[in-house]
């Protein structure tokens, strides 16, 4: 199941994503986040994390750096984002 989900998202990245305008507000992109989450947490939990991330990615959110966390959560990885901003001397 894990390989199937990864292949499905990679197919989206290769064939569908180039046809659409770039609109992801986060880094890494939502499709890359989904692949990383599935690899790290398995098919079911990774899929849930990826879907939660896609639902968070909309025009009314600030966005920014949001890597896959080491533990399962459907919320943004605020600690990694804060550490990244501090290391880059950003507000």
From TrEMBL:
Highest taxon of the lineage: Bacteria
Family affiliation: Belongs to the UPF0161 family.
Pfam family for this entry, one: YidD
Major place of residence: membrane
Protein name, entry field: Putative membrane protein insertion efficiency factor
Compartments it resides in: Cell membrane
Function recorded in the entry: Could be involved in insertion of integral membrane proteins into the membrane.
Annotated TM spans: none
